[in-house]
Amino acid sequence: MIYLNNAATSFPKPKEVKDAVVASFDYPLVHSSRTGFEREEEDIAYLCRVRLADLFNVEDPLRIVFTSGSTEALNLAIKGLSLDGSNVVITAIEHNSVIRPVKTLEKEGKISVTIVECNKNGYVYPEQIEKSIRDNTRAVIVNHCSNVTGAVLDLEKIAKIVHSRGAYLIVDASQSAGAIQIDCKNWDIDLLAFTGHKSLFGLQGIGGLYIKEGIELKPLKVGGTGILSEILLQPEGVPIHYEAGTPNRPGIISLYAGVQFILNTGLEKILEHKKKLYQILFDELEGNEDIEIYSPRENTSYSNFCFNVKKMVPEEVGYMLESSFDIYVRTGLHCAPLMLPYLGVAPWGTVRASHSYFTTEEEIYKFTDAIKKIALVTKKI
Amino acid sequence: MKVLKVKEVKDCFESNNSCDFLLSGPITKEFAEYLGKLGKFLYFDEFDVPAFKVIVRGEYTVKGAIGKKTIRILLPEDVSNYPLDNLINYINQYKQK
Fold it and tell me: Residue B90 above 90 pLDDT?
């Protein structure tokens, strides 16, 4: 099997992740808030926050709260800010995990939503965002890296624009966390949502939200925290204010091991490998008259190769890849329906092949050979 | 050959009205050709695992690959509960040589 659907969920995971999760069955899972200072080194949740803070350049690791993934993190950010009566700016490259929460609030009459267009590769110009911000815009939500084309936005520039207009910047880092550099401190990110099971190599069901110092959100859920049980309201302070309920300790263990793997290997080395594979994809398929590529050459995560075989719907390509070549990609809308008209791929969407650090050159060549054979089929039909 | 199970397929697919048939045995070239008699038959033997497609104009499209135990049927978008009994009966009548 050749797995090229890493933008959905990464596979395989590093051996270290599997080992850490399996080993967790051999000892009791320690509750972070119930451990004494002397046991801090054993507190996997704290250690995980510290390593995530290293990766995202966050000063205070406790400002990273765990969630079930990006969707919950984004819901916490969007519903946790007091946005009622304001305008919210999003971009055309957003995932449904952003579109649906804001469109629901809009339907309820609580906010208005402005959508900023993207170019034919899924890139959103900061200047376009600037033009879309109104006097009553309270939040701008941007996808750092498109889950469709892999286009990467200029967060540093966008943050400056957003803050100069007095709004919050919420970043969806589902695709970029663990894939490319993120610098919360220097880019001045307000809220950054991430998931653990993609480029961070963790299990499904773990993710988080970075909340900048000084920002207070209304929690999505309240309940047991394992400490301060005498208080009848949700305890204040990070991360406990946002982490009611039993934490997903196996998920946190996997995420810790995944982030450790990235930091030990080096983000640059991981990116370099993916860049090499990305180059092969372009070398082999760009210029083929039967193939249309939507992913950009520049401003990219070098992980997503988004294309179509002309005269063939994407699902057909995916079906042939799977049934005749044992190659797994993703086809369709990729939960990013606003993008379709800008790419010119409505209503069927695209084929997305997403590789990882563990994908080999040989696998990429087998994929491009398969695509060339499938493209020839269009001449038969 | 028997159709053991019919499963509706839900995804961002080329047809939002499609289903998979689970068959009692692996698909052979002969079985693909048998299905091919229903309409326009396309056979892609240049693939690692040869695949086929049968376009029954105005009705449905069947596709699959040799050695697999499932075929996919793409049905017209605008028809719900599309009658598949004839196709199922046709498949059930196939006798492996």
Answer: yes
